[in-house]
Design goal:
Radius of gyration: 26 Å
Strand content: 35-45%
Number of helices: 7
Distance between the termini: 131 Å
Largest sheet: 12 strands, mixed
């Protein structure tokens, strides 16, 4: 064998050994013990809440098992809360980000560009441009990204809730410090919320939610890959190909749609200031078709279902829901370990209302009974009589 041949073999041996070391390093790092962090629970919570301006990009997976039935026109929400969702995300700031939801049938992307939201639907070959802030909307897949989910949950916590440290966990290459939040309010179905975040800057990397009395998480959202590099701005802007349909939607039209055929309260806001002892939460933007009540984790959402939407929802829910009796109406109760849904229908007026929240059935029943009683009293008041002129 020539000297040149031996030298070439040595060089290639060095290259192959280097490649082998690079391949083994991630596995070796994953097997090493995760170093603990001395940061306090309160300090970690503060860093998580202040992490909204940290840029990142990565690949996340969320698994949700709420056990909700499929209701008409809400199939997307039902799939989101009872399946595994994979997402690629590029995040620059609260006003500039992009999340691509991946599934077996295609792709559904969300772009946030200042105050304009774009939703790309691969199946329909449709790009929807939504103008204006969205004070109330249905959940979508970006809500399940660990940073957004962790900040939203911690933002709901009250001073009475208990916060403590958890052992550190390595997630997507980050030696993350753990935080556990246990709600103090007995009216919520949430038993505990576990969050792991980078102790250096507070970027959340994993979130788990447990229902009361259940040790297995009903929701797990975690990064599988993560880089805290700033994404290129061009990545955050949609670039529709020729032939893609582009439509524009404005949120000002939602009020009339949610009230249904213009049969809402013509004199102003049809919702009471309180229900079942819970005060109404004022949401920015003035979307009059939806109302929220309560504070902390014991808050519920009220949505009137006009016309055929109400009857279709009742028909679909009756297959799995428990029928209950309400003063002045009937109800269908859907109870899962975490989320509770109540469809309340007024016997006299045939109007259906959807109540939902991570709260006990008793709280929803109390609120629904209060609303139906108010409706009955409103329409049974004696009309004033006027003296006849002579």
């Amino acid at each position: 064998m020539s000297v040149v041949g031996r030298q070439a073999r040595r060089r290639w041996s060095v290259v192959l050994c280097g490649i082998a070391v690079l391949c083994v390093l991630p596995a070796v790092r994953a097997a090493l013990p995760v170093p603990g962090s001395g940061i306090s629970a309160q300090a970690l919570r503060a860093r998580i809440l202040a992490s909204a301006w940290l840029p990142y990009q990565g690949y996340a997976e969320s698994t949700v098992d709420f056990g909700l039935p499929v209701l008409p026109d809400l199939q997307g929400v039902s799939r989101l809360f009872d399946s595994t969702t994979d997402q690629e995300v590029w995040y620059l700031s609260p006003g500039h980000w992009r999340a691509d939801g991946l599934s077996a049938v295609g792709e559904s992307d969300v772009y946030q560009v200042c105050r304009v939201t774009y939703r790309w639907d691969y199946t329909d070959n449709l790009l929807t441009r939504i103008v204006g802030a969205q004070p109330v909307r249905l959940p979508w897949s970006p809500d399940l990204l660990p940073p957004a989910l962790a900040r939203r949950l911690l933002g709901l916590a009250s001073p009475a809730d208990h916060i403590s440290r958890l052992p550190s966990l390595r997630v997507a290459g980050v030696d993350a410090a753990g935080l556990r939040l246990v709600p103090a309010d007995p009216a919520t179905t949430i038993g505990a919320i576990d969050i792991w975040a980078d102790p250096a800057d507070g970027l959340p990397v994993e979130v788990r939610i447990m229902a009361r009395g259940v040790s297995r998480p009903v929701l797990v959202a975690s990064f599988l890959e993560l880089s805290q590099r700033r994404p290129a701005f061009a990545t955050l802007i949609p670039h529709p190909s020729p032939g893609v349909d582009v439509v524009t939607a404005r949120l000002s039209s939602l009020n009339g749609v949610l009230k249904g055929d213009g049969d809402g309260d013509r004199d102003g806001d049809p919702f009471p200031a309180s229900l079942g002892g819970l005060g109404r939460i004022q949401t920015p933007g003035g979307l009059a078709g939806v109302a929220a009540y309560g504070t902390g984790f014991s808050r519920l959402v009220l949505l009137p279902l006009p016309g055929t939407a109400g009857s279709q929802a009742v028909s679909a829910a009756s297959r799995t829901a428990a029928a209950i009796s309400l003063p002045g109406g009937t109800g269908l109760l859907i109870r899962t370990p975490l989320l509770t849904v109540l469809l309340a229908t007024s016997q006299r007026f045939g109007r259906t209302f959807l109540f939902t929240g991570a709260v006990t059935p008793a709280l929803l029943e109390h609120a629904a009974s209060d609303l139906l009683a108010r409706l009955r009293a409103l329409f049974t008041r004696p009309r004033p009589r006027f003296a006849r002129r002579t």
